[in-house]
Request: fold
Amino acid sequence: MPPASRQLNLAVAAICVGLYLLAAMFYHMGGALIGQLDNAEKIHQGAPTAFLVVHPGMYWLISALASLTHARITTAASIVGSLHFAATFAALVWLLRRLTGPLQTLPLLTCALALLFMGSICIPFLPTRYFDAHGFNRTAALLRNFTHIGVVPYMYAFLACLSLMLPRLLSGASISGKTYALAALLLAVSAIVKPSFAIAYLPALLAYLCLARKKLPPLSLLLALSPTVAIIIGEYIAGETGSVSGGPAMTYVVDPFAVWLQNNENIPIAFIAANALALYMLAVRPKQLSPLTCIAWLNLAIALVPYIALRETNEGADRNFEWSYLDAKMILMVCSAADWLLWCKTPGGGIHLPALTPKQKTGAFLLAWHGISGIIVFFAVHWHRAGH
Reply:
C-alpha cells in the first residue's frame, strides 16, 4: 500500500473513532436523544409480527446486539447509532474519492467533515423559523432518528458504487456481476433501514439514464434494482396499509406546502439557505456538472413533489415525505462539493486557496459556511437535548 493511502486510511480510522465517541457521549448524556425504540423492544421481546415493522433494519440490529451482549436496548441503540454515524464519514470519504479522483488527504478529510455536519447556512439576524426544521441542520435530526442515521452510510456507499457503474451504463459497456451485486445489496439494505432514499432516487436514476442514453436502461440494471423495489412495495403493504402492523392505514390528502410551512415561514429563503452551494455551482458551471450531480438535481425535484403536494393525516406522520427531501439535499450537496473540488484542485491533488479565482473562492466560502453553520447548530442542539 502506498504511504499516502496508508496515511489516509489511518486518518479516516482515527476520525471514525472520534466520531463514534462523540455520538456515544451525546447518547450517554441525554436519554431523550434515543427515540423510536419501541419497535426494537418489541422485536427483542419476540412480540407477534414485530419482526415485520416498517423499515426494520436498525431495529433488527439493535435487538440482535442486545440479545448477543445482554445489554439494555438503549445501550445497544447508542452503539449501533454511533457506529453508523462514524460509518457515514468513511462512506463520504469513499464517495468523494470516487467523484474527485486523486486528492490530497487534508482537503479530502476537511471537505468530508464539513459535509458530515453540513446544514443550512446561518444568516445573521434571521430567526430560525425561516429555515427548515431539519434543513437548518440535518445532523440535528441524525442522532435522535435511528432509521435516518442508519440509511445515510448505505446511501453514500451506493452512490460511490454507482459512480463506478455510471460511465459504463452511459457508454453501453459491460459491468461485472460483482459490481451489480454490491450495488444491489447496498440499495436493498438502505431500503430495509429506511426507504426514503431509494423511493425518490430510483426514478431519478432511471429517468436520467433514459434521457442520456435515449433508450431504456439495460435489463441487468433493472434486475439489480428489482429487490429494492420489492422491499419498498412490501414495506408499504406491511406498514402503510396496516395489514401486518395492525395499526391504522396511512391516508393522504392534497395540501400544498402545508408540511413545509410547518417548518418555516419563508420557503424561498429556506430553500436557498439549504442548497446555497448547489445553486451557486448550478449558476456558474451548469455545463460542467457531473452526471451524478445531474441525477441529484432530478432526485431533488422528484422528492419535492410529494413533500410539497401531500400531507399524511395520521398523527405524528404528517412529515414523513420530508425524509426523501432531506436525503436529496444531502446528496446534492455532496455532489456539488465534489464538483467544486474538481474545479479547484491542482494537478497534484491539492487545493491552494490563495491561487483560486474569485468565483472559486465564493464556492469555498459557501462550503465553509454550510459546514460551520452545521457544526455550531449540531453541538448547540445536542448539548441542549442532553440537559445542559
Q: What stands out?
A: The mean pLDDT is 85. The radius of gyration is 21 Å. The chain is about 70% helix and 0% strand. Strands lie at 252-254, 310-312.
